[in-house]
Protein: histidine kinase
Organism: Rugamonas rubra
Amino acid sequence: MMTPLSILLVEDSDSDAELLLRSLRQADFDVAATRVDDAAGMRLALAAPHWDLVISDYNLPGFSASAALALLGEAGLDLPFIVVSNNIGEETAVLLMRAGAHDYVMKGNLARLAPAVKRELKEAERRRQHRAAAQALRDSEERWKFALEGAGYGVWDWDIPSGNVVFSACCTAMHGYADGEIEASIGGRDALLHPDDRERVQQAMRDYFAGATPRYKQEYRARCRDGSWKWVLDNGMIVGRDEHGAPQRMICIRIDLSERKRVEQSLQELNEQLESRVEARTSELRQAMAQIIESEKLASLGVLVAGVSHELNTPIGNMVLAATALHDKLKELSGAIERNQLTRSGLQHGLADCLGASEIIARNGHRSNDLIESFKRVSVDQTSQRRRTFDLRTTVQDSLTALGAITRRAKATVELNIPDGIMLDSYPGHLEQIINNVIMNSITHGFDGMPDGHIVIEARRDGDMVELVYSDNGHGIAAELQHKVFEPFYTTKLGQGGSGLGLSIVHNLVQAIFKGQLRLDSSPGQGVRLQFTFPAQTPLPNNAAGGAGDGDQIDDDGFTIPPFGTM
């Protein structure tokens, strides 16, 4: 396949020109040639730059290869220039090569011409590609430098072997310097580093050069012309290496972080203010919750007092009646003695009546004593909130005893299925408050409008954990409301005596005091099932020092408001 070849031929001899072109065609070149023999003709030919190469005789009448070479240089064309002559010496050939000629061939040895042409065409193409790549690189650098400068980003370009650094105008202006006022070296850059940042920044550069990081990226403070310090970000990478891989050139973008740092400082101050406000509001809310919880405790104790006083009415009434009967019988016996009318049988009947009355008094006195002791345990536990070791069944039974009048009035029966011997090291007062709250919740809400109700309280111990299950056969809770029942102040009896804190306090006590979990299972018409799971030995608070024992107290301020919708 013929290779197209466009030649500008500087030759005054027709025969020599024909020999030269023939040798190229024989080498598979499809030659298109224009022949000139003076400066004017060559200038005119060079005005249409479509040539692949120039072949010139050394010496022509009124013209020469040197003159042709000079005209080619003036035209700014990078074309292969080959001299073909009969009488060129070695010294002359060297001078021509220094002047820009690429090769010379003797007319008597035209066999060298075609290989020389092929070689120089390849070299010309390589030079063209190199120029194109260099121009593309210059254009690219110009574009990104323009874009970076337009965005307010500075650039510093480091020639690593020499240590020279070129700072862009934006880079120097960023620090208030004019062009040339910053030393154009890597030492000039380091001289701007804040003393507290210098070692860190230089170490980051060493790490990057060692390959420990994929790119160099550091935030630091740099000195401005007025002596102030400005936060900047340098983000760069090595863009040139030698044949051995050694770094030769590095380019870094510099970004002014002043505005970002100002915003960060403002955000930090706002966050600190917000944290202070949240802390203050949280403290106020805790105090309010503590007061509400204390009110609930007192209200609970009020219910217990009312219940116990009702329970005591019967045995005390019986004791009064029996004591009155005893008094009357003794008075009757005393009168008979004074009148000498006391018979043996009369004395025996009188003593029997007195014995019966005393038995009634003793029995009801013991009953009253049991009620009072139960009330004392409940009231002491709930008012002092002291930690001690106690039997789970006994403590729950004490609460049920105190609530006996209330449950009977509501026609609710309570079935207690807790075995003896489940010992807890915890806070019985809080446990009694839980029992009181859930029973009152069942009576107020679960059994509302029902002729009677049934409650079952069960418990079992599984290793170090205790599971207490409370269930009733009340109305139940709809699924869409179950996520609300433990929220503070949520109640369906608003304005009817319901505070909305009963189950919220239960939830809080289980999690904050007993470190346990509470699960609710319910559906409309199927009652409520509350499953409490907690350690048999309540963990000590985080701030407790030393071991726990009877009499340890817990601060109600440790309560937290349960998240909405949690159980």
Remarks:
- The chain has three domains: 3-133, 151-256, 287-558.
